[in-house]
Amino acid sequence: MLLSLAALYLIWGSTYLAVSIALETLPPFLLAGVRFVTAGALLYGVLRLRGVPRPTLRQWGAAARVGVLLLVFGNGLVVVSQQWVSSGVAAVVVSTMPLWLALFTTVRVGRGEGAPAGAPEVSRGEWLGLLVGFAGAALLHLGGDLHAAHAGALLVVLAPVAWALGSLYSRTLPLPAGSMAVAAEMLAGGAVMLGISALAGERLAAPPSARSLLALGYLTVFGSIVALSAYTFLLRSTRPAIATSYAYVNPIVAIALGILLGGERASATTWAAAAVIGAGVILISRSR
User: Fold this and answer.
1) pLDDT band at 217; cut points 50, 70, 90
2) Model pTM score
């Protein structure tokens, strides 16, 4: 479990800078679609060679639903928004995901939908964590770090909402066992993004640079196959609070790498928002 957590903390924290580099010469949906279709195909092929059974039609349907939420909306919107916002700001916004997950879980438990018998009511600490975390998100917006020249930058705000919904439903839908679920989700989500890319008329203005291709390779192997497999394992084997704890480490990694390697700048508001959101996530984690 510790290796899985380390993978999420370090790898996913670095993917924001990798996306920024890849976007230098690759359009967003083409980038994301190629990334996940390639990663999904590689993982699917390896698993089939190992004798893992192919998903049933019902399992493909479940994987497609989760893949669209996690990858098309949860990841794709981040990639699109990073055309206008820095990798650090994107990471801070995405770090609100555990807050949304806690909120959606609370609503679901309250309605008795898929909640275990005798599920506890939401504690004061959890409500406090939600309020603190969303206050941090509001600080980021009001401080101007999300005010960009293009309204598309605000799409990043929707990404953690979709990722939280996908994470929640992945625990109850009839997905394939083990890593085959990851492969199916990536294939389905990647195919949808390639379709969106074609419909949007995305084209390569010039051959991709070596930097962009290296970043794409890193995102495919480490950001997709390794990290997403680790996340799926944690979702199914431990509490959501632990599985989503990467959210208050990733922004620090992303901001630091953006400054050191990407030539980005992080305002005091960005650092403050990251700290406040992280405090909210920690409050929720310790209250569960």
Assistant:
1) very high
2) 0.82
pLDDT of residue 64: 96
- What is the rounded CA–CA span in Å between residue 12 and residue 259? 17
The DSSP secondary-structure symbol of 209 reads P
Provide the b/e sequence for 74-112 (b: ≥16 CB within 10 Å): bbbbbbbbbbbbbbbbbbbbbbbbbbbbbbbbbebbeee
Cα 217–193–169 angle (5° rounding)? Answer: 100
User: Where is mean pLDDT largest: 49-53, 114-118, 282-286?
Assistant: 49-53
Inter-residue contact 91 to 18 (CB < 8 Å)? no
Cβ pair 281, 247 in contact under 8 A: yes
CA-to-CA separations, 251 to 34, 83, 104, 118, in angstroms, rounded: 25, 18, 23, 35
Q: Assign residue 54 a region: left if phi > 0, alpha if psi is -120 to 50, beta otherwise?
A: beta
| Separation in Å, CA 106 to CA 80, 119, 183, 242 | 30, 10, 29, 17
Which residue, among 35, 8, 39, 9, has the nearest Cα to 21 in the 3D structure? Answer: 35
Q: Burial-class residue 53 by CB neighbours within 10 Å (0-12, 13-18, 19+).
A: exposed
How many whole angstroms separate alpha carbon 182 and alpha carbon 89?
Answer: 27
Q: Let me know if 203 is exposed, middle or buried by CB neighbors in 10 A (0-12, 13-18, 19+).
A: exposed
pLDDT at 35 over 90: yes
Q: Residue written as tokens 């390697």?
A: 261
Q: In this structure, are residues 25 and 212 in contact, taking their beta carbons and an 8 Å threshold?
A: yes
Lowest average pLDDT, out of 46-55, 154-163, 176-185, 226-235, goes to: 226-235
Measure the CA–CA gap between 102 and 179, rounded to whole angstroms.
25
Whether the CA torsion 147, 152, 156, 158 is positive or negative: it is: positive
Collapsed DSSP state (helix, strand, coil) of residue 118: coil
Taking 90 as the threshold, does the pLDDT of residue 116 lie above it?
Answer: no
